[in-house]
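Tutorial handout. Part one gives the primary structure; part two gives the three-dimensional structure as tokens.
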Amino acid sequence: KETFDSLIGFEPWITWRYIANLKDIANGRLLDEDGNEVPFQKIQSESATIRGEAEIIFPAELKAGERKIFRLDLTGETPKAEAAPIRNVENQDLNSLIFQNTEYLAEPIKFISAEDTTDTWSHKIKSFPESAVNVFTAETFREHFSGPFVCEELGSFHSNGGRIDVAVRKCADCNGLRMRLRLLWNQPQTQVRMILKTAFPIKKRIEETPGGKITRSLNGEEYPLFRAIKLQGEEHSLSVVTEDCFSTCVKEDGTLELMLIRTPYFAHHEPYIPPENHFYPVTDLGSHEFEITILCDAGDEDIRREIYRQTDPVRISESTFGVNRELQ
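Part two.
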């Protein structure tokens, strides 16, 4: 276990909107156990109900196994102090990725779909055939919110088989970008991939495995993906961290193709053409969500912390003063 020193997101569900003197949660004050004010940023909540009107983002440091109590003062009686942010951030879309005045993407990130008649378990597959590819059409990104800790833009990508809605965040605790994808798909026997290409030559690919790391070839072959992959160049690197994707391939020119979904019929062992009349189920149709982080020049510690952020996040519980906060 390691010390957590990053941003925490929390959506208060106490009915702050009904408190007499407070018109906006952004005018409240977040206090630590010593009464020190903790700066926070208000963003849109995950819930569309009238109670959940805001999420707050704030910095915190917790040692392994440590618990801290924060108090959200919503009385409006004490003026809110202006606190300096960790680092100002700027909006981010998928057309470029600039870190310390260096561009890390050779071209905009894109999404493709392709026909895939291979079997349900990808038996005997080293790489998928270069069949006809359909590139999703991108809409212009628009600002969702911005502030000292987090900025977010929203965009959509459309295809005949469905759409992908994307929320792209630039965060003060991340040297890169964090994406949330919501993919809605309705075509059988296809695959959907996310593609990015580095702006610098790749020397090797280094991947996380259970209990260690492994170096694999840049030969375009499909390999399982376990949480993280790093594309290492001479001076720079680009890493992708995700718990939600299961395979990837990397080519010599620095192109990384991340498999999002495959939709074979369930279940067959060889390339398959279904009969005209059938009622076979199809895998992975419908709605899917992905969390994907792209890091610039990330060290082992940066990658490990991002994996923990996705797989073992900080847990927060909420109570009023009338509830014993020592209860577990």
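Part three, for discussion. The helical segments are 300-311. The chain is about 5% helix and 40% strand.
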